[in-house]
Design brief:
Blueprint: H1 2-10, E1 49-55, H2 58-66, E2 71-79, H3 88-92, E3 99-106, H4 113-122, E4 131-132, E5 135-136, E6 142-146, H5 149-168, E7 178-181, E8 186-187, H6 195-198
Parallel strand pairs: 6-7
Antiparallel strand pairs: 1-3, 1-6, 2-3, 2-8, 4-5
């Protein structure tokens, strides 16, 4: 019974009364990207865009995006919860409401937002709700955390396109990906940043559906 209660708690977002209190100050993190040595928190070149994506364990997700041509810098962190400045252990408790995510900063002249989303859809299974593969909990939910109305419109069209692609492939499952405005983004601890570059044999966790996400006509991936 205890294990069942624990599982149910991890699959349900906490209320404000249940959420951990967090702290006023940010937790320590890295200043620079371990691979490309660019500053994680900026400044970023003028005209570049950012988006925050949740697709399961953030270690493998971050590596996927820092390898894409046109991506300037990536970082991992926590978003869409209630607890200010959470730690990894607090997020894993299921009592912050936060998702494990990767922040992607990119040059829209070199890779389109649609191209970023194509990699997002094809790198995980967005139909699994509060889990991704063997990783279970609200912190592993699929999510797109947008910075403006234009990104939201593109993200919603992209979700509908991928839902259609799943249906054509005989996959009746419904996409559970949340698309919401990006709230405060909290950088994860330094050891999580670019984890798979520091630990090449570490756990990745990325899967996928095996279904390709078609780009709109005339939109280049890069």
């Amino acid at each position: 019974m205890f294990l069942a209660d624990m599982l149910n708690r991890k699959l349900k977002l906490p209320t404000a009364a249940e959420a951990m209190p967090g702290r006023a100050a940010p937790i320590p993190t890295a200043d620079f990207h371990f691979v490309n040595h660019r500053p994680l928190a900026g400044p970023w070149p003028e005209g570049y865009q950012s988006v925050v994506l949740g697709l399961g364990c953030f270690w493998g997700a971050e590596r996927k995006f820092w390898q894409l041509p046109g991506v300037w810098v990536t970082s991992v962190g926590y978003i869409a919860g209630l607890t200010p400045n959470p730690t990894y252990q607090e997020v894993c408790s299921g009592l912050t409401g936060h998702n494990e995510v990767v922040q992607v900063v990119f040059d829209p002249a070199a890779i389109s937002f649609e191209g970023i989303l194509k990699a997002f859809w094809e790198s995980h299974d967005p139909t699994q709700g509060m889990r991704q593969g063997n990783d279970t909990g609200t912190q592993y939910r699929s999510g797109i955390y947008v910075t403006d109305a234009a990104q939201r419109a593109v993200a919603e069209r992209s979700r509908a396109t991928y839902q259609e692609a799943l249906a054509r492939a005989g996959r009746p499952q419904k996409i559970t990906t949340e698309i919401v405005d990006a709230g405060p983004y909290y950088y994860a601890e330094a050891y999580h940043q670019q984890y798979l570059a520091k630990n090449p044999n570490g756990y990745c966790g990325l899967g996928g559906t095996g279904v390709s996400c078609p780009l709109p006509t005339g939109v280049p991936a890069a």
